[in-house]
Design goal:
By secondary structure, the chain is α+β, with helices and mostly antiparallel strands. It is 44% helix and 23% strand. Helix 6 packs across helix 7 (178-190). The mean pLDDT is 92.
Length: 216
């Protein structure tokens, strides 16, 4: 969002942001709170989630550097319908939405930037809704592993996911129970699609995972 701004607007923005550090698992914002800031993740990993029936959480989105979040509810004039928490120690830039509104009113390109971002997020949300409701357990878990690879990449060995999720978090991302996630991961390991070392997951056969994800 920096590039569409002129020098005066960049100076304005530079005077209206703060940098906040969050510890692992620290809550960034809660469901039901009133949105006040646009947030940009500078370092770390953040999950957007919603608590459901029986205390089960559903991970809605995963945020990676440098992505924006926390602003949709403000534009919709509603409270947050989801919560956000740090997966690992994270650094976030917070910009007051009042400052964003001022800049958007002055700059059509910036307004188009937000329209594009919201449109992309809506498309991703639509696709995830279909996948999480229509795919079987194996398809959902395979899709989640591929999603994590695309979002966060691999370690230097070229096969280990560079994000370490608990089995519960992986289940919440895949819309299944923790026991189902554990069992399906074990099946994938037995089939030599992945190897597991604690929270580390190494992808061995990406093409087979893609096939399982596509079949559903």
């Amino acid at each position: 969002m920096w590039s569409p701004l002129n020098e005066e607007q960049r100076e304005f923005l530079s005077n209206h942001f703060t940098i906040q550090s969050y510890k692992k698992n620290e809550i960034i914002h809660c469901e039901g709170e009133r949105p006040t800031h646009l947030m940009c993740l500078l370092a770390g990993k953040v999950k957007i989630y919603k608590d459901g029936v029986g205390g089960r959480s559903q991970i809605i989105r995963m945020i990676k550097p440098v992505e924006y979040f926390g602003y949709r509810a403000f534009f919709a004039r509603e409270d947050y319908v989801t919560a956000a928490a740090a997966f690992e120690p994270s650094v976030i830039c917070l910009i007051p939405m009042t400052a964003i509104v001022t800049l958007v009113s002055q700059n059509n390109e910036l307004a188009m930037f937000f329209i594009k971002q919201l449109s992309i997020d809506l498309g991703i949300a639509d696709e995830r809704t279909v996948n999480l409701t229509q795919k079987h357990i194996r398809g959902r878990l395979a899709e989640s592993l591929l999603f994590l690879k695309e979002s966060y990449g691999l370690e230097e060995d070229g096969s280990t996911l560079s994000i370490y999720l608990s089995r519960e978090d992986l289940a919440n991302l895949s819309n299944m129970t923790t026991s189902n996630a554990i069992r399906t991961l074990s099946q994938f390991a037995t089939e030599r699609l992945i190897t597991i070392d604690g929270r580390k997951i190494k992808i061995i056969d990406e093409e087979k995972l893609k096939k399982i994800s596509k079949i559903g």
